[in-house]
Amino acid sequence: MSLFNVYPLYNVTPVKAKDVYVYDDKGVEYLDLYGGHAVISIGHSHPKYVSAISSQVEQLGFYSNAIQNPLQIQLAHKLEQISGCKNYQLFLCNSGAEANENALKLASFHNGKHKILAFKNSFHGRTSAAVAATDNLKIIAPINAQQDVDFVELGDLEAVEIILKANKTCAVIIECIQGVGGLDQSTTAFYQGLEQLCKQYNTVLIADEVQSGFGRTGDFFAYQAHNITPDIISIAKGMGNGFPVGGILIHPSIKPSLGLLGTTFGGNHLACAATLSVLDVIEDEKLMRNALEVSTHFLKKSLNIPNLKTVKGRGLMLGLEFDFPISELRKTLIFKHQIFTGGSKNPNQIRILPPLTVQKKHIDLFFDALQNELN
Ligand SMILES: Cc1ncc(COP(=O)(O)O)c(C=O)c1O
Asked: Residue 318 C-alpha to ligand 1 middle, in angstroms?
Protein backbone atom coordinates (compact mmCIF):
# COMPACT_ATOMS: atom_id res chain seq x y z
CA MET A 1 0.00 0.00 0.00
CA SER A 2 1.27 3.52 -0.77
CA LEU A 3 0.61 6.69 1.16
CA PHE A 4 -2.10 9.01 -0.14
CA ASN A 5 0.12 11.73 -1.51
CA VAL A 6 -1.24 15.02 -0.16
CA TYR A 7 1.76 16.63 1.55
CA PRO A 8 4.66 18.37 -0.21
CA LEU A 9 7.59 17.03 1.83
CA TYR A 10 11.06 18.28 2.68
CA ASN A 11 13.62 15.52 2.40
CA VAL A 12 14.41 15.33 6.13
CA THR A 13 13.60 12.37 8.40
CA PRO A 14 13.53 13.36 12.08
CA VAL A 15 14.04 10.46 14.47
CA LYS A 16 14.43 12.25 17.77
CA ALA A 17 14.09 15.69 19.32
CA LYS A 18 15.00 17.53 22.49
CA ASP A 19 13.72 20.97 23.52
CA VAL A 20 14.23 23.25 20.46
CA TYR A 21 16.35 20.77 18.50
CA VAL A 22 15.33 17.98 16.12
CA TYR A 23 17.75 15.23 14.96
CA ASP A 24 17.47 13.37 11.66
CA ASP A 25 18.32 9.77 10.79
CA LYS A 26 21.89 10.82 9.93
CA GLY A 27 22.40 12.54 13.28
CA VAL A 28 22.13 16.08 11.85
CA GLU A 29 20.83 18.63 14.38
CA TYR A 30 18.17 21.17 13.29
CA LEU A 31 16.99 24.22 15.19
CA ASP A 32 13.18 24.05 15.27
CA LEU A 33 11.66 27.52 14.83
CA TYR A 34 8.48 25.97 13.42
CA GLY A 35 7.44 23.75 16.34
CA GLY A 36 5.79 21.22 13.99
CA HIS A 37 3.31 23.97 13.04
CA ALA A 38 2.94 25.69 16.45
CA VAL A 39 2.36 22.39 18.22
CA ILE A 40 5.49 22.12 20.36
CA SER A 41 4.85 24.46 23.27
CA ILE A 42 7.04 23.26 26.17
CA GLY A 43 9.85 21.86 24.02
CA HIS A 44 10.31 18.44 22.45
CA SER A 45 10.43 15.49 24.89
CA HIS A 46 10.29 17.66 28.01
CA PRO A 47 11.17 15.28 30.91
CA LYS A 48 8.01 16.16 32.91
CA TYR A 49 5.87 15.53 29.82
CA VAL A 50 7.57 12.22 29.03
CA SER A 51 7.21 11.08 32.61
CA ALA A 52 3.52 12.17 32.85
CA ILE A 53 2.56 10.30 29.68
CA SER A 54 4.68 7.24 30.50
CA SER A 55 3.31 6.79 34.00
CA GLN A 56 -0.26 7.40 32.81
CA VAL A 57 -0.04 4.77 30.07
CA GLU A 58 1.28 2.29 32.62
CA GLN A 59 -1.84 2.89 34.73
CA LEU A 60 -4.64 3.53 32.23
CA GLY A 61 -4.19 4.94 28.71
CA PHE A 62 -7.82 5.09 27.65
CA TYR A 63 -11.35 4.47 28.69
CA SER A 64 -14.44 5.96 27.05
CA ASN A 65 -16.46 8.94 28.23
CA ALA A 66 -19.00 6.56 29.82
CA ILE A 67 -17.10 6.50 33.13
CA GLN A 68 -15.79 9.03 35.69
CA ASN A 69 -12.48 10.56 34.62
CA PRO A 70 -11.11 12.78 37.42
CA LEU A 71 -8.23 13.85 35.16
CA GLN A 72 -10.69 15.85 33.03
CA ILE A 73 -11.90 17.70 36.12
CA GLN A 74 -8.33 18.33 37.26
CA LEU A 75 -7.54 19.66 33.79
CA ALA A 76 -10.57 21.97 33.78
CA HIS A 77 -9.48 23.43 37.16
CA LYS A 78 -5.89 23.92 36.07
CA LEU A 79 -6.95 25.50 32.78
CA GLU A 80 -9.25 27.91 34.59
CA GLN A 81 -6.48 28.90 36.99
CA ILE A 82 -3.77 29.49 34.40
CA SER A 83 -5.97 31.03 31.66
CA GLY A 84 -8.05 33.21 34.00
CA CYS A 85 -11.23 32.09 32.15
CA LYS A 86 -13.50 31.91 35.19
CA ASN A 87 -16.48 29.54 35.23
CA TYR A 88 -16.17 28.42 31.61
CA GLN A 89 -17.03 24.75 30.93
CA LEU A 90 -14.62 22.42 29.15
CA PHE A 91 -15.44 19.95 26.37
CA LEU A 92 -12.50 17.87 25.15
CA CYS A 93 -11.91 16.48 21.65
CA ASN A 94 -8.91 15.56 19.49
CA SER A 95 -7.87 18.33 17.11
CA GLY A 96 -8.28 21.97 16.12
CA ALA A 97 -10.78 21.30 13.35
CA GLU A 98 -12.83 19.15 15.67
CA ALA A 99 -12.77 21.89 18.30
CA ASN A 100 -14.10 24.45 15.80
CA GLU A 101 -16.63 21.97 14.42
CA ASN A 102 -18.03 21.48 17.93
CA ALA A 103 -17.90 25.23 18.63
CA LEU A 104 -19.93 26.03 15.50
CA LYS A 105 -22.40 23.23 16.10
CA LEU A 106 -22.90 24.27 19.72
CA ALA A 107 -23.48 27.89 18.64
CA SER A 108 -26.19 26.72 16.26
CA PHE A 109 -27.80 24.52 18.92
CA HIS A 110 -27.68 27.46 21.33
CA ASN A 111 -29.44 30.14 19.27
CA GLY A 112 -31.14 28.04 16.59
CA LYS A 113 -29.57 29.97 13.67
CA HIS A 114 -27.62 28.39 10.80
CA LYS A 115 -25.23 30.83 9.09
CA ILE A 116 -21.57 31.45 9.97
CA LEU A 117 -19.63 34.69 9.70
CA ALA A 118 -15.87 34.28 9.20
CA PHE A 119 -13.07 36.57 8.01
CA LYS A 120 -11.09 36.77 4.79
CA ASN A 121 -7.82 34.82 5.02
CA SER A 122 -9.15 32.72 7.90
CA PHE A 123 -8.12 29.11 8.56
CA HIS A 124 -10.25 27.00 10.91
CA GLY A 125 -9.54 23.41 9.87
CA ARG A 126 -10.59 20.81 7.32
CA THR A 127 -13.80 19.25 8.66
CA SER A 128 -17.28 20.17 7.46
CA ALA A 129 -18.27 23.50 9.05
CA ALA A 130 -14.67 24.39 9.99
CA VAL A 131 -13.44 24.16 6.41
CA ALA A 132 -16.50 26.00 5.10
CA ALA A 133 -15.50 28.86 7.44
CA THR A 134 -11.96 28.74 6.00
CA ASP A 135 -11.21 31.28 3.28
CA ASN A 136 -9.57 28.90 0.80
CA LEU A 137 -11.71 27.58 -2.08
CA LYS A 138 -9.07 24.97 -2.91
CA ILE A 139 -9.81 22.93 0.23
CA ILE A 140 -13.62 23.30 0.24
CA ALA A 141 -15.29 20.27 -1.39
CA PRO A 142 -18.83 20.56 -2.79
CA ILE A 143 -20.14 18.72 0.28
CA ASN A 144 -18.68 21.44 2.54
CA ALA A 145 -19.95 24.27 0.35
CA GLN A 146 -23.49 23.55 1.54
CA GLN A 147 -22.67 25.50 4.70
CA ASP A 148 -23.86 29.09 4.51
CA VAL A 149 -20.84 31.28 5.32
CA ASP A 150 -20.25 35.02 4.87
CA PHE A 151 -16.63 36.19 4.64
CA VAL A 152 -15.90 39.72 5.78
CA GLU A 153 -12.71 41.79 5.63
CA LEU A 154 -10.90 41.69 8.99
CA GLY A 155 -11.66 45.02 10.70
CA ASP A 156 -14.90 45.81 8.84
CA LEU A 157 -17.51 46.21 11.59
CA GLU A 158 -20.06 47.78 9.25
CA ALA A 159 -20.08 44.69 7.04
CA VAL A 160 -20.42 42.49 10.14
CA GLU A 161 -23.43 44.46 11.35
CA ILE A 162 -25.24 44.29 8.01
CA ILE A 163 -24.97 40.49 8.10
CA LEU A 164 -25.78 39.96 11.80
CA LYS A 165 -28.85 42.23 11.52
CA ALA A 166 -30.49 39.64 9.23
CA ASN A 167 -30.68 37.41 12.33
CA LYS A 168 -29.57 34.20 10.58
CA THR A 169 -25.96 33.99 11.82
CA CYS A 170 -25.38 31.55 14.68
CA ALA A 171 -21.67 32.35 15.14
CA VAL A 172 -18.85 34.68 14.30
CA ILE A 173 -15.56 32.77 14.30
CA ILE A 174 -12.28 34.65 14.44
CA GLU A 175 -8.55 34.14 14.93
CA CYS A 176 -7.43 37.24 16.85
CA ILE A 177 -4.10 36.75 15.08
CA GLN A 178 -4.51 34.95 11.77
CA GLY A 179 -2.14 31.99 11.55
CA VAL A 180 -2.09 30.29 8.15
CA GLY A 181 -3.50 33.49 6.56
CA GLY A 182 -0.39 35.51 7.38
CA LEU A 183 -0.32 36.92 10.95
CA ASP A 184 -2.74 39.81 10.39
CA GLN A 185 -4.59 41.23 13.36
CA SER A 186 -7.04 44.08 13.86
CA THR A 187 -7.43 46.72 16.56
CA THR A 188 -8.80 46.42 20.09
CA ALA A 189 -11.65 48.73 19.01
CA PHE A 190 -12.57 46.22 16.30
CA TYR A 191 -12.54 43.16 18.60
CA GLN A 192 -14.57 45.01 21.23
CA GLY A 193 -17.01 46.24 18.58
CA LEU A 194 -17.36 42.67 17.31
CA GLU A 195 -18.13 41.42 20.81
CA GLN A 196 -20.74 44.12 21.23
CA LEU A 197 -22.42 43.32 17.88
CA CYS A 198 -22.50 39.60 18.73
CA LYS A 199 -24.28 40.41 22.01
CA GLN A 200 -26.69 42.81 20.33
CA TYR A 201 -27.71 40.31 17.63
CA ASN A 202 -27.65 37.12 19.74
CA THR A 203 -24.70 35.62 17.86
CA VAL A 204 -22.08 33.40 19.49
CA LEU A 205 -18.53 34.82 19.38
CA ILE A 206 -15.97 32.03 18.86
CA ALA A 207 -12.30 32.83 19.41
CA ASP A 208 -10.22 30.29 17.49
CA GLU A 209 -7.15 29.99 19.72
CA VAL A 210 -6.03 26.69 18.18
CA GLN A 211 -2.73 28.22 17.06
CA SER A 212 -2.48 31.38 19.17
CA GLY A 213 -3.49 29.84 22.52
CA PHE A 214 -1.58 28.17 25.33
CA GLY A 215 0.81 31.08 25.88
CA ARG A 216 2.11 31.48 22.33
CA THR A 217 1.50 35.24 22.21
CA GLY A 218 2.75 35.92 25.75
CA ASP A 219 -0.87 36.04 26.95
CA PHE A 220 -2.50 32.67 27.60
CA PHE A 221 -4.99 33.51 24.82
CA ALA A 222 -4.41 36.08 22.06
CA TYR A 223 -7.89 37.62 22.53
CA GLN A 224 -6.96 38.59 26.12
CA ALA A 225 -4.89 41.53 24.84
CA HIS A 226 -8.20 43.10 23.75
CA ASN A 227 -10.18 42.66 26.94
CA ILE A 228 -13.11 40.78 25.39
CA THR A 229 -15.07 37.74 26.61
CA PRO A 230 -15.72 35.21 23.83
CA ASP A 231 -18.65 32.82 24.22
CA ILE A 232 -16.55 29.86 23.05
CA ILE A 233 -12.76 29.48 22.84
CA SER A 234 -11.31 26.66 20.72
CA ILE A 235 -7.96 25.10 21.63
CA ALA A 236 -5.58 22.41 20.31
CA LYS A 237 -1.96 22.49 18.97
CA GLY A 238 0.23 23.67 21.91
CA MET A 239 -2.21 22.08 24.34
CA GLY A 240 -0.74 18.58 23.98
CA ASN A 241 2.82 19.47 22.88
CA GLY A 242 2.36 16.85 20.16
CA PHE A 243 -0.19 14.60 21.82
CA PRO A 244 -3.38 14.91 19.69
CA VAL A 245 -5.86 16.79 21.87
CA GLY A 246 -8.26 19.69 21.40
CA GLY A 247 -11.17 21.28 23.18
CA ILE A 248 -13.57 24.16 23.62
CA LEU A 249 -14.05 26.44 26.62
CA ILE A 250 -17.72 27.32 26.85
CA HIS A 251 -19.11 30.40 28.61
CA PRO A 252 -21.53 29.65 31.49
CA SER A 253 -24.38 31.32 29.56
CA ILE A 254 -24.40 28.31 27.21
CA LYS A 255 -26.00 25.34 28.91
CA PRO A 256 -25.19 21.68 28.27
CA SER A 257 -27.67 18.83 27.95
CA LEU A 258 -26.89 15.13 27.96
CA GLY A 259 -25.89 13.84 24.54
CA LEU A 260 -25.54 17.31 22.96
CA LEU A 261 -21.85 16.73 22.04
CA GLY A 262 -19.72 13.61 22.20
CA THR A 263 -16.56 11.82 21.10
CA THR A 264 -14.92 8.44 21.64
CA PHE A 265 -11.31 9.49 22.11
CA GLY A 266 -11.72 13.10 23.31
CA GLY A 267 -10.49 13.77 26.86
CA ASN A 268 -8.93 10.33 27.27
CA HIS A 269 -6.59 9.70 30.18
CA LEU A 270 -3.40 10.06 28.18
CA ALA A 271 -4.53 13.31 26.55
CA CYS A 272 -5.39 14.75 29.97
CA ALA A 273 -2.05 13.70 31.46
CA ALA A 274 -0.20 15.26 28.52
CA THR A 275 -2.14 18.55 28.76
CA LEU A 276 -1.82 18.76 32.54
CA SER A 277 1.95 18.42 32.26
CA VAL A 278 2.03 21.10 29.54
CA LEU A 279 0.16 23.52 31.82
CA ASP A 280 2.46 22.73 34.75
CA VAL A 281 5.56 23.41 32.68
CA ILE A 282 4.14 26.63 31.17
CA GLU A 283 3.55 27.84 34.72
CA ASP A 284 6.72 26.49 36.41
CA GLU A 285 9.09 27.69 33.70
CA LYS A 286 7.26 31.01 33.17
CA LEU A 287 7.05 30.33 29.46
CA MET A 288 4.60 33.14 28.71
CA ARG A 289 7.12 35.64 30.10
CA ASN A 290 9.83 33.95 28.07
CA ALA A 291 7.69 34.25 24.93
CA LEU A 292 7.46 38.01 25.45
CA GLU A 293 11.16 38.48 26.21
CA VAL A 294 12.37 36.41 23.27
CA SER A 295 9.82 38.13 21.01
CA THR A 296 11.18 41.58 21.95
CA HIS A 297 14.69 40.36 21.15
CA PHE A 298 13.45 38.95 17.82
CA LEU A 299 11.86 42.26 16.82
CA LYS A 300 15.06 44.14 17.67
CA LYS A 301 17.19 41.78 15.60
CA SER A 302 14.79 42.00 12.65
CA LEU A 303 15.52 45.73 12.28
CA ASN A 304 18.88 44.93 10.65
CA ILE A 305 17.62 42.53 8.00
CA PRO A 306 17.80 43.73 4.36
CA ASN A 307 14.77 43.25 2.03
CA LEU A 308 12.44 42.86 5.01
CA LYS A 309 9.11 44.66 4.45
CA THR A 310 7.28 44.04 7.73
CA VAL A 311 7.15 41.85 10.81
CA LYS A 312 3.63 40.79 11.76
CA GLY A 313 2.22 38.90 14.73
CA ARG A 314 2.87 38.85 18.45
CA GLY A 315 4.86 36.87 21.02
CA LEU A 316 6.23 33.72 19.38
CA MET A 317 3.75 33.80 16.51
CA LEU A 318 5.59 35.97 14.04
CA GLY A 319 5.74 36.50 10.30
CA LEU A 320 8.64 38.07 8.41
CA GLU A 321 7.46 39.49 5.09
CA PHE A 322 10.10 40.01 2.41
CA ASP A 323 9.91 41.66 -1.00
CA PHE A 324 10.45 38.31 -2.75
CA PRO A 325 9.03 34.75 -2.53
CA ILE A 326 10.67 32.87 0.34
CA SER A 327 10.37 29.21 -0.63
CA GLU A 328 14.02 28.96 -1.77
CA LEU A 329 15.20 30.83 1.33
CA ARG A 330 13.34 28.36 3.58
CA LYS A 331 15.04 25.46 1.79
CA THR A 332 18.43 27.13 2.25
CA LEU A 333 17.67 27.67 5.94
CA ILE A 334 16.95 23.96 6.37
CA PHE A 335 19.64 22.38 4.21
CA LYS A 336 22.50 24.85 4.66
CA HIS A 337 21.84 26.31 8.13
CA GLN A 338 19.77 23.47 9.64
CA ILE A 339 16.92 25.73 10.75
CA PHE A 340 13.23 24.82 10.37
CA THR A 341 10.83 27.70 9.69
CA GLY A 342 7.23 27.85 8.48
CA GLY A 343 5.44 29.45 5.56
CA SER A 344 1.97 31.01 5.26
CA LYS A 345 -0.62 31.78 2.59
CA ASN A 346 1.53 34.82 1.74
CA PRO A 347 4.33 33.50 -0.55
CA ASN A 348 6.70 36.25 0.69
CA GLN A 349 6.33 35.45 4.39
CA ILE A 350 8.37 33.23 6.72
CA ARG A 351 6.44 32.13 9.78
CA ILE A 352 8.19 31.64 13.12
CA LEU A 353 6.41 29.37 15.64
CA PRO A 354 9.11 27.97 17.92
CA PRO A 355 8.68 26.07 21.18
CA LEU A 356 8.01 28.60 23.97
CA THR A 357 11.29 27.49 25.58
CA VAL A 358 13.32 29.07 22.75
CA GLN A 359 16.12 31.39 23.90
CA LYS A 360 17.66 34.59 22.55
CA LYS A 361 20.76 32.66 21.43
CA HIS A 362 18.59 30.55 19.10
CA ILE A 363 17.05 33.67 17.59
CA ASP A 364 20.59 35.00 17.03
CA LEU A 365 21.46 31.85 15.05
CA PHE A 366 18.45 32.44 12.83
CA PHE A 367 19.31 36.08 12.17
CA ASP A 368 22.98 35.21 11.52
CA ALA A 369 21.78 32.76 8.87
CA LEU A 370 19.45 35.36 7.34
CA GLN A 371 22.22 38.00 7.27
CA ASN A 372 24.47 35.45 5.61
CA GLU A 373 21.98 34.73 2.86
CA LEU A 374 20.59 38.21 2.26
CA ASN A 375 23.68 40.43 2.37
C1 LIG B 1 -6.27 28.78 13.76
C2 LIG B 1 -6.43 27.33 13.41
N3 LIG B 1 -7.60 26.74 13.63
C4 LIG B 1 -7.79 25.43 13.36
C5 LIG B 1 -6.78 24.66 12.84
C6 LIG B 1 -7.01 23.20 12.55
O7 LIG B 1 -6.36 22.41 13.47
P8 LIG B 1 -6.10 20.84 13.17
O9 LIG B 1 -5.10 20.77 12.07
O10 LIG B 1 -5.61 20.30 14.50
O11 LIG B 1 -7.41 20.25 12.79
C12 LIG B 1 -5.52 25.25 12.61
C13 LIG B 1 -4.41 24.43 12.03
O14 LIG B 1 -3.44 24.94 11.51
C15 LIG B 1 -5.34 26.62 12.89
O16 LIG B 1 -4.17 27.23 12.67
From this structure: 16
